Amino acid sequence: MTVIRTPNDRSLDRARICNNMSFQSLLAWTVTYRNIGESNATLRYHQRAHTGEKPYSCGLCAARFVSREHWRLHQRVHSGERPYCCGVCGLRFAQKPALNRHYI
Q1: Torsion-angle region of residue 18: left (phi > 0), alpha (psi -120 to 50) or beta?
Q2: 39 is in which domain, residue-wise?
Q3: What value, to the nearest 5°, has the Cα angle with vertex 37 and ends 31 and 39?
Q4: Is 32 helix (H, G, I), strand (E, B) or coil?
Q5: Per the database record, which ranges form the C2H2-type domain (predicted)?
Q6: Which of 13, 63, 87, 103 is the most buried (most CB within 10 A)?
Q7: Residue 31: left (phi > 0), alpha (psi -120 to 50), or beta?
Q8: Do 22 and 15 meet the contact criterion of CB atoms below 8 Å apart?
Q9: How far, in Å, CA of 1 to CA of 71, rounded?
Q10: How far apart are CA 22 and CA 15, in angstroms?
């Protein structure tokens, strides 16, 4: 992990890490999530944004994914599953955000 210091700043609380979190924020995040047991998995997920790693691949097409959840949602493209239904018109959607946009 590369820590980039801001000009004329010697304190770590103002340093920037990967342009997403300050050191102070990262420390607070680590303390908050360490006991929950999510920090390692969440950190690995975040690191994939920098490495380009996409360990989950679709067996039916060339698509690759950063998370198992994104892979699972993609499978609906091939299966045709549309579990979210509009209560007004009955139109069905593969993902809940699409249903929410439909209501707007």
Answers
A1: left
A2: 1-52
A3: 60
A4: helix
A5: 56-83, 84-104
A6: 63
A7: alpha
A8: yes
A9: 27
A10: 6
Please state, rounded to an integer, the average pLDDT across all residues of the chain.
76
The verdict on 2 and 47 lying in the same domain is yes
Residue 17 in tokens: 């890490």
Choose among 5, 3, 31: nearest CA to 18: 3
Q: How far apart are CA 99 and CA 95, in angstroms?
A: 7
In the predicted model, is pLDDT for residue 8 greater than 50? no
Q: How confident is the model over 23-40, as pLDDT tens digits?
A: 556 555 555 555 555 567
What is the pLDDT confidence band of residue 18, given thresholds at 50, 70 and 90? low
Number of domains in the chain: 2
Write the pLDDT tens digit of every residue in 51-69. Answer: 889 999 999 999 999 989 9
Residue 89, domain CATH: 3.30.160.60
Q: Which amino acid is at 58?
A: C
